[in-house]
Amino acid sequence: MTLDGRTAVVTGGGRGIGRSIATALAARGAAVAVWDLNAAGAEETIAAIHEAGGKAVAIVGDAADATAVAESAARTRAELGPVTILVNNAGTTKYVPFTEMTEELWDRMIHINLKGPFLVSRAIIPDMLDAGWGRIINISSSSAQSGAPSLTHYAASKGGVIGFTKALAIEYAASGITVNNVPPGFIDTPLTRESIDPDVVAASMPMKRAGQPQDIAHAVAYLASEEAGYVTGQTLSVNGGRYLV
Predict the structure, then answer these.
(1) Which of 154, 172, 222, 243 is catalytic?
(2) Known catalytic membership, residue 154
(3) Domain residue spans in the chain?
(4) How much is the pTM?
């Protein structure tokens, strides 16, 4: 599944799942723009890509801010060329009981997790239309499929990502652009460890273990490939059996 000659953007590529996705795409030949608010994390990701012989640039900016997105897209084109692979991975989560949830917390979650993919996709799709080829992969969540306590705002935002994926897929199906989403189950990352004990959660999973970031990266790499050219509007669940469709 070679991606030679392709340019990819991975938002939130500075750590965890995003870093694994960025390195997986680079390993398959794509030039990768790692977008992240964390400059140090983005630089660490591209350093790993460079060490492995790949091509990548780090771009610092807020993927949920229209001005920053436009600037990041322009810089990516200037340094790597037009973008034909987009992975909307940047996001946030926070456990909050529903009766304690403020309007500000709700709005922030929707702003980052749902408005962000909208803004970035809108900025990048013109490149794909010009090329007559494109791959958009949105990272959603199994919490949007099954529900989760104290995560109503998060599940709602990621459920929106799934709906966004389906609608965008239909709109661009005849244009050579595919749009799919990957909802991770419990993945052992620094972000998840900030909120929950991975060993406790893993014990409740059918496979009795947590997933790893590379599990998501492999699924994304497939959806970004030529081999997935007839796959669009789909939800490719990578969750160790947590939720069965």
Answers:
(1) 154
(2) yes
(3) 7-228
(4) 0.95
